[in-house]
């Protein structure tokens, strides 16, 4: 089984703001992750990534809020999306 793209979306929220969501199902967990999903979810405002969830190889699941990085407890793709959209809404208030 090869990696399969599950979601590849870009949502323009306003003239200077967009969200990009990419999620793959992997044949085996990426290095540093215990699950078979690879993901990158980002909120970009005026060319600056202000929020990003990802699990790059070796670092495991985490999120970036501006310059701060913190661990993220991944449970399922649906929860990941809900958590991300909740944070997007909070950042846009």
Question: What would you note in describing this structure?
Answer:
A 6-stranded antiparallel β-sheet has the order 1-2-3-4-5-6, with helices on one face. The chain is an alpha+beta fold. It is built from 1 helix and 6 strands; from the N terminus they run ββββββα. It has one helix at residues 77-92; strands spanning 4-14, 17-25, 37-45, 48-54, 62-65, 68-71. The termini are far apart.
Percent of residues in helices comes to 10-25%
What would you report as the Rg, rounded to the nearest angstrom?
13 Å
Identify the strand order in the major beta sheet.
1-2-3-4-5-6
Distance between the ends: 42 Å
Residue share in β-strands: over 45%
Largest beta-sheet details:
6 strands, antiparallel
Tell me the number of structural domains.
1
Shape: globular
The number of distinct β-strands equals: 6
Class by alpha and beta content: alpha+beta
Contiguous low-pLDDT stretches (5 residues minimum) are none
Number of helices: 1
Task: Give the oligomeric state.
Answer: single chain
| Secondary-structure element series | EEEEEEH
Chain-averaged pLDDT? 94
Summarize the topology.
Elements: E1 4-14, E2 17-25, E3 37-45, E4 48-54, E5 62-65, E6 68-71, H1 77-92
Antiparallel strand pairs: 1-2, 2-3, 3-4, 4-5, 5-6
Q: Which keywords apply here?
A:
93 residues; alpha+beta; six-stranded antiparallel beta sheet; 47% strand
